[in-house]
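Please go through the sequence line and token line underneath and see whether the fold suits the sequence. See right below:
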Amino acid sequence: QVQLVESGGGLVQAGGSLKLSCVASGSIFSVNVMGWYRQAPGKQRELVANILSGGSTNFGNSVKGRFTISIDNAKNAVLLEMNSLKPDDTAVYYCYAVILTRQLSRAETYWGQGTQVTVSS
């Protein structure tokens, strides 16, 4: 079983920055995609950003121009850099990864437990 460990959540002021990291461990053969979703109370879960192992990235419309994402293939880790944070960014952020394990011939999606990000006014 693959485990995703998230870190970096916390409380920041509006306009500030925060960095989230996620490290995948386990019987990993390759990582196809790593990224982040977020969910605020009473709202749908939405894509924040993701990155393919080849380096291409996708961002949700609400974070374009403010967030960046990068991947460290050697460490099976993803870093989300959040800048110019707004109160609307407050949510639980969930790391996910599409991973091919050494035991299986097809990739599966794995999720972290979630980390709280709170942006104050």
In short: The two ends are 40 Å apart (CA to CA). The mean pLDDT is 96. Residues 13 and 120 are 5 Å apart (CA to CA). The first strand starts at residue 3 and ends at 7.
